[in-house]
Fold:
Amino acid sequence: MNIQRPLVYIILVNYNGYLDTVDCVKSILDNDYPNYKIIIVDNASADRDTILNDTFLTENADILLAGSNDGFSSGNNIGIKCAMSKGCEYVLLLNNDTIVEKNFLSELVNCAESNPMTGIVTGRIYCYYDKKTLWYSGGEYNRANGLTNQVLFDESVKGEKEVTFASGCMMLISNNCLKKIGLLGESFFLYSEDTDYCCRVNDSGMKIIWSSDSVIYHKVSASTGNNSDFQNYYMLRNNLYMIQSFGSNKKIAYWKRRIQCIKDIIKRRLNIRTMHWAYADFHKGIKGKGIRFNK
Structure:
C-alpha cells in the first residue's frame, strides 16, 4: 500500500544570489523525499529578471516577489503564508546557499513524525567549502548570557537529541507549530529571528529536535559577507533585543555581552564603530533595517 507522505513546502529566500539558488534547487531535486514543493521568494534582488526568465527555476518552483527587501524573516513569512494557504503539513526554511544530501528531507520528516509535540526539526550542517568543518550541529541559546552555541554535538554523536536552538539555515516547522506560535518575527531584519522563534517554541512546550542523519552544506555568509560590519551590526544589535526579551538575568547578560564585545575587538573580529552603532540603535529602540545599512 502506498501511503502518502506529508506535504512539505521548501522555502528559499533569494537576495542577489541567483547562482546559489540554482545550485540549491538542483540539489533539492535530487533528494529522495516524494512529496514536496519549492517556493522561491525573491527579496527585491537586482537580478530579479534573471530568476523570472530562468525556465529551470520557473518549472521547478513557485516564484514569489517581495515588494522590497524587508529582511530574512519577511521573505520567509511570505513563503510560509503561501505554503499554509496550499495545505502544507510542514514548511522547511532552507538557506538558498546550501547543498543538500539525498536523504536530508526524509530524515527530517521521519524525525518529526516520530516525536510527539515536535515543533521544529533540524539536522547537521557542514561548511560547504570545508566539508569536514561543522557549522551547526545541535544548538542552545543560553538565556543567562544571551549567547548562542551552534555546535553542541561532534561527529561521534548520532541519533536524535532535544535542543533549544535550531538555525534558520535549515528548520522544518510543523503546521501545528505555525498555527500555535505564528510567523517569524520581522523586527530583526537579519539574524536572531531563528533564536527568537526557537525561544517562543520552547516556551510553548513544543520540542526542537536535532537529527544527526539529516545533512546539508552551507556556503557560510554568501549574501552578507563573513564577519563584515553589516553582519556584526545586526548580530550584536539583535542579540541585545534577545536579552531584553528572553534574558533570565538581564543585567548580568548585558554585562557579559559587553565583555564579549571587548574580546572581539581585541581579536579584530569587531570594530568599535560598529559596536557603538549597534548599542546606540538598541537604546533608541531602532528595529528592522538599520538606518546605517541600506542593503
